[in-house]
Amino acid sequence: MSTCCLRRVEALRSFLITIDTEGDDIWSKRSSIETRNASFLPRFQALCEKFGLKPTYLVNYEMANDRGFVEFGRDLIARGAGEIGMHLHAWNSPPVHPLTSNDAWHQPFLIEYPEDEIRKKIEFHTHFLEDVFGVKMLSHRSGRWALNAFYADMLREFGFRVDCSVTPHVDWRSAGGTDYRGFPEQHYWMSKRNIALPGASSLLQVPMTIINRSPALMIRATRACENISDLPDRVRRYIWPLDWLRPNGSNLTSMLRILDTAISQNRPYVEFMTHSSELMPGGSPYFPSIDSIEKLYRDLNELFSQVAKHFCGRTLTEFYNKMLPLSCSD
């Protein structure tokens, strides 16, 4: 157990690191996918271990076929230094079921597929990861943040305990995804009848830490507008400015502010996320160069040094286990 867990924060606040572990620069929508970013992950892992933090790597199909990452993941599991969970990109995860004229470009959400295809993809990828890494898959994040009730049912059927696909305050419908406005900001046991509500199911939802900085009165007023969903994205971002606990190269101040908010509100956790490809130069639009990666690591070092003073690093499943006695009934 890390020293931070021996302090008073052990009973209160968890710092959860989630990494969408996927191919290089998925944003470019290339027909072929490389996985060079796997070789850049040991540096990030070493930084996490320096501060007693334990990442959860949510792994998709191409990364589970990368020999270097598989070795990295197996070592991580053996040392208890983190967790391997599942991340599913529907357009290139077997069994292949073309949904558009060019799935590599359109990148359809899993929830857009027929239900029998959704089940087949979840079943295949779950068992594939379990065979590769030799452990039961317990944690999950959907590709492109898309979730619905059937998807959640399938996660329960295949033994998942915790999901982190919900992005509070964010509406993805313009791209074909899920509208998460009105979903809880903090963890809850997902209702089987309505995934936006707490209930009695065995699946713990751990929403991404996203804080709405709009005044409460403005939030209520703008949500009352009948056609608010039709507003341009740039207008909605102005009306509802959101802080994500996700580095983009220029938001260290807002991430530190999130920590302060979590402490002042006595939140039981905050959830940090990034993509594995954002940890290598040129692996994403946000960090195109070596210099940008070096700045990222300076920011992460400062962020994690503050985290270590007030939070305890846990994997998603460790957080699930901590919350298990607090489960409730529908």
Structural shape: globular
CATH topology of the largest domain: TIM Barrel
Mean pLDDT: 91
Order of helices and strands: EHEHHEHHEHEEEEHHEHEHEH
CATH class of the largest domain: Alpha Beta
Strand content: 5-15%
Class from secondary-structure proportions: alpha/beta
Largest sheet: 9 strands, mixed
Oligomer: single chain
DSSP E strands, number: 11
Structure description:
There is one protein chain. Helix 5 (115-133) runs parallel beside helix 6 and helix 9 (252-264) packs parallel to helix 10 (290-310). It contains 11 helices and 11 strands. The protein has 2 domains: 3-209 and 245-324, Alpha-Beta Barrel (TIM Barrel); 212-243, no CATH class. Strands 1, 2, 3, 4, 5, 6, 7, 10 and 11 form a 9-stranded mixed sheet that branches. Helix 6 (149-157) links the parallel strand 4 (139-142) and strand 5 (162-163). The chain has 330 residues and is an alpha/beta fold. It has helices at 41-50, 61-64, 67-79, 103-106, 115-133, 149-157, 216-223, 233-239, 252-264, 290-310, 316-323, and strands at 14-21, 56-59, 83-88, 139-142, 162-163, 188-189, 204-205, 210-212, 242-244, 269-275, 312-314.
Show the helix and strand layout:
Elements: E1 14-21, H1 41-50, E2 56-59, H2 61-64, H3 67-79, E3 83-88, H4 103-106, H5 115-133, E4 139-142, H6 149-157, E5 162-163, E6 188-189, E7 204-205, E8 210-212, H7 216-223, H8 233-239, E9 242-244, H9 252-264, E10 269-275, H10 290-310, E11 312-314, H11 316-323
Parallel strand pairs: 1-2, 1-10, 1-11, 2-3, 3-4, 4-5, 5-7
Antiparallel strand pairs: 6-7, 8-9
Helix pairs in contact: 5-6, 9-10
